Amino acid sequence: MTVRDEHYDVVIVGGAVTGSSIAYHLANDPDFRGTVLVVEQDPSYRHAASALSAGSIRQQFATAINIQISRYGIDFLRRAPNLLAIGDERPDLGFHLRGYLFLATEAASAELAVNYALQRGLEVAVRWMTRRELAREFPWLTTADLAAGCLGLSDEGWFDGYSLMQAFRRKARALGVEYRRAKAIALERTGRTVARVRLDDGGAIACGALVNAAGTGAPALARSAGIDLPIAIRKRTMFPFACKAAIEEFPILIAPGGLNVRPEGSGFICGAAPPHECDQEATDFEVDYASFEADIWPRLAERVAAFAEIKPGPAWAGHFDLNTVDHNAIVGVVPGWDNFYLACGFSGHGLQQSPAVGRGIAELVVHGGYRALDLSPLGLARLTRPSAIEPALG
Question: Are 147 and 109 in contact, with CB atoms under 8 Å apart?
């Protein structure tokens, strides 16, 4: 049998955390009896967002669907050592529970209050804090310019994203999923269906269903089928550092201006989103140490005085797939197609959303609809009409 004669019931393009979660959930569904192939161009995952992310999860979002997805994800992470075990081998995801602390100036406090009300309405354990309360409970924090903050009290934290990705991948393979090193370069359409996917080695694979979980490669693959996705590649850099002073119970801090910092081992890691006008398409993985020295470090020291004396460590840069319309994932079947599914545009939230999205796509393929959690608010159709959801906070 030649490569061109091959057929799989489901072909998933992209074998990082989202694609591997979909593969696992398909193979683990007792009602699924088909074959699954995951096409991944770089099984070393050297440049995968799953391997280069800060790996955190939160419930403090500005939309109900993202909160529900995170709630599902937290529960999955707690059960993952058993769910993704192979024999007696259980994955260690390095899961640390610690709340996010979102800080707001007077100008941003109204938006923070709206999000807080939504979160409380959905029974998220979050606390509104005045500037006085912030100063009292976090004496190391500079609060003079702040109006308020929101602190997550439970079910937030960080974990090893690479370990989660590999755990999904190993379990999927143990359940019979095949992985192949190749790059999917184009989709061939017959009527309302994806008939086959063409690979960079000259071969083609026929499929019953096609899932585009290719991350930053998702727009190009969709474009080959005549679909334009509003997804751009953006680069973010994480800077680790050690601090001379000890700061106990440091939260995952999100400060005004896009600055973020959290504990990592005995030290910390931090990053910052560049100004909107400077946040351009990126293809390189170079670390801009000058920006840390000139911009990020001064802001760190201004917000936390103890960070004036730090020892920077080796930094790394990674890419993510940004949905430029509303900064939320694009999930579900493509309108007008019978067997073409999307799981992309996660805008930096792919790791934490991979358990729920993996199950959701598997349910669509196997059962024709969502069962555990309705992900339809994230469908592509919303982007062709006035947005049904607002940009996610942070």
Answer: yes
The answer to whether the pTM exceeds 0.85 is yes
In 10 A of CB 275, how many CB atoms? 10
Q: Which two tokens stand for residue 244?
A: 């001379």
SS3 state of residue 15: coil
Q: At 17, which helix (H) or strand (E)?
A: helix 17-28
pLDDT at 389: 54
Q: What is the DSSP string of 75-131?
A: HHHHHHHHHT-BTTB------EE--EEEEE-HHHHHHHHHHHHHHHHTT--EEEEEH
**At 190, which amino acid appears?**
T
- Taking the C-alpha atoms of residue 8 and residue 341, their distance in angstroms, rounded to an integer, is 15
Q: 242, exposed or middle or buried, with CB in 10 Å at 0-12, 13-18, 19+?
A: middle
Q: Determine the pLDDT at residue 348.
A: 94
Q: Is residue 194 within 8 Å of residue 340, measured between CB atoms?
A: yes
Strands 184-190 and 193-199: antiparallel
Contact assessment for residue 77 and residue 17, using Cβ atoms and an 8 Å cutoff: no
Q: What average pLDDT is seen over the chain?
A: 94
